[in-house]
Write a structure and sequence with these properties.
The structure holds two protein chains of two kinds. By secondary structure, chain A is mostly helical. In chain A, about 80% of the residues lie in helices and about 0% in strands. Chain B has helices at about 5-15, 20, 25-35, 40-45, 50-65, 85-105; strands at about 35-40, 65-75, 75-85. Chain B has a three-stranded antiparallel sheet. Classes of the chains: A mainly alpha, B alpha+beta. The interface of A and B includes residues 5, 8, 75, 78 and 213 of A.
């Protein structure tokens, strides 16, 4: 036996194999597309329907992801439970994401409060000046909500494609707000989905259903 | 006269756990060592072993008390989960130490 037995690499390879089906990419790409389709309707203005339909879209995306894992991936690839290190990382990610979401909600609430206050709104308008600069600021804040969160998910989930998705999601939110058009986010969503579909097809070819009934 | 060191090395080699040392079982035990549990399909995909081979190796490891088999049902389908026992973990740790020791003692 001339090769070194690298247990960390064996574990990492086993863990990363669970991302080979491309379902994460498809799910996140769909989230971007549904966000663009329903949340952003500048001409018609916002209504509760926008939010409701977006949530239905997110739910549908998750349903596709869940059903894909349950009915396609697991029967082909098998079932695995990883060790304490991965569970610790998942817990850490959940805690960090919880804190990030609290911060994001606080920022949104402070922003809304600020714009509702006439004096503060006047000061903000004076500070930001032109409408373009104001939109740029909103776009920057919006993309800052998405980008770092996705980078954290990629880091703690040991999911290298997540960094690529993080960049694309950040760009999608930024362009959608800045250019006042959902089409860019839809195109970017498709760019996230495309590699996922290629991986999914490869996965189906590489892992046919096992013939034995007992798994 | 034989070299005492050579005799010690040879003795160390004889102490290697043969049950783990077999390449297919080594890959199985190493994989089970770094995860908590897995089913047959996952182990087959990761190790490249066929169903029959995997089953035969698992039986040997189970007989030695190195792995435990948990039979459950996923819906109507039977599902067999495998995990390394404490004895299996200790045996693999011992195997790693012994191999390291043996290989470190080998002359250049």
């Amino acid at each position: 036996m001339t090769q070194k037995l690298n247990l960390k690499e064996i574990e990492r390879k086993a863990f990363r194999s669970t991302f080979q089906d491309g379902l994460w990419d498809i799910y996140l790409g769909l989230v971007v597309i549904f966000m663009a389709l329903f949340l952003f309707r500048p001409d018609e203005g916002y209504s509760p329907w926008n939010l409701l339909l977006m949530l239905v879209g997110f739910g549908t995306s998750f349903l596709i992801f869940w059903a894909g894992k349950k009915f396609i991936t697991v029967p082909r690839m098998g079932q695995v439970s990883f060790g304490p290190l991965r569970k610790r990382k998942a817990t850490t990610l959940a805690i960090i994401m919880g804190v990030v979401i609290i911060i994001q909600v606080a920022v949104v609430l402070f922003s809304v409060g600020g714009w509702l206050d006439d004096d503060l709104a006047a000061k903000l308008n004076a500070l930001l000046g032109e409408a373009n600069l104001e939109r740029m600021a909103v776009a920057a804040v919006g993309s800052l909500f998405v980008g770092p969160s996705m980078i954290l998910v990629a880091y703690f989930s040991d999911f290298p494609r997540g960094y690529y998705i993080a960049i694309l999601m950040t760009a999608a939110v930024f362009l959608m707000i800045l250019l006042n058009q959902p089409i860019y986010a839809i195109i970017i969503g498709a760019l996230i989905i495309l590699p996922g579909l290629v991986l999914f097809i490869r996965f189906l070819q590489k892992y046919p259903l096992p013939k034995r009934g007992d798994s | 006269m034989s070299d005492p060191e050579t005799i010690t090395d040879a003795a160390s080699l004889a102490e290697i756990d043969r049950l783990i040392h077999e390449p297919a079982r080594l890959s199985l035990v190493a994989l089970l060592y770094v995860i908590e549990s897995a089913d047959f399909t996952f182990l087959m995909n990761q190790t490249g072993l066929t169903w029959g081979n995997l089953s035969a190796h698992m039986s040997k490891l189970e007989e030695a008390g190195y792995i435990e088999v948990e039979k459950t049902f996923k819906g109507k389908r039977p599902n067999t989960l495998l995990r390394l026992t404490v004895k299996g973990r200790e045996a693999f740790q011992g195997y790693r130490q012994k191999m390291k020791q043996v290989l470190d003692e080998l002359p250049e």
